[in-house]
Amino acid sequence: MSASHILTFVLHVARSRIRRGSKAFWWRGPSSSGVPSEFAAKLRVGCSGWGYDDWLGGFYPEGTPKSDYLKLYANTFDTVEVDSSFYRIPQPAMSANWRRTVPDGFLFTAKFPKKITHEKKLVHIEEPLSWMYKSMAELRDRLGALVVQLPPSVKFDSHWEHVKTLLDLLDPKIHHAIEFRHKSWFKGEVYDLLRSKNVAMAWTENQYVTSPPVVTADFVYLRLVGERDLKEFKETVKDRSKEMREWYRHLEKEASGDDVRQVFVFFNNHYAGFGPASVNEFRRLAGMMEMGFPAAGGAQRGLGDFG
Fold first, then answer.
1. Is 208 left (phi over 0), alpha (psi -120 to 50) or beta?
2. Helix or strand or coil: residue 47?
3. Whole-prediction pTM value?
4. Residue-number span of the structural domain to which 125 is assigned
5. 253 — phi, psi (to 5°)?
6. Angle of the 241-254 helix axis to the 275-285 helix axis, nearest 10
7. Using one digit for the tens of pLDDT, what is the confidence trace for 113-142?
8. Tally of domains within the chain
9. In this structure, what CATH number is given to the domain that contains residue 217?
């Protein structure tokens, strides 16, 4: 190996670190707009869910048993939004097993069950809320936040008092985000209440609304959901680069200060067709190296790659 190759490798390692578990080099450098790398250091980008059979061959190796999906996912990305909790609150034993499966430093977020948001529509929710907290307590230090996804039928005029009651019931020791899917919620009165509770208004782009990028807590929670027209999630089929750049500019502007300590960004498969590829595209915007997918054997690079 030539001296120049060795120097190149040393410089690469100097600005990289090896993420525990993934065996893949990555780095957090400045973005193209010159924002310091401290912003990227508080940024976590992941997918909404991990249990997709459509990812076999593209993300997971062919033939991977479903029981190994989470381990492989968590050795690649450092956060995930639990989507299944929306349909059914996981048993505490299941949450505890999730925690044991992932490496140190990995963070889960999880959606509130639809029992609370869509069926009861925030009325008489004490019992399911208690069960949700009991389950999520098993994640312990791996719990990053819980997100309340409200349906578009929940509007300010009809549910303002119920939202205020909900906020009073939330455990203040846990980070919470609330996603509104009706434009009536995007007003100062709502932002002020959320700030008083340190609850993040989720930034969102979905088939109903695109939210304004307003910060209401010491963390930001961005959900890029998209429409619901896609049926297969094997590859990227929509170019969302323009939208991603716009959201990233919002994050640079609104979340770079010391008052925002953590930023979560989650991609649904419906957004562009293949969540893991969207995660890597967003990582590139942040000056972070792409992660190699398990199906391709990861992205570890060694001295031999420079010879």
1. alpha
2. strand
3. 0.86
4. 3-306
5. -75, -45
6. 50
7. 999 999 999 999 999 999 999 999 999 999
8. 1
9. 3.20.20.410
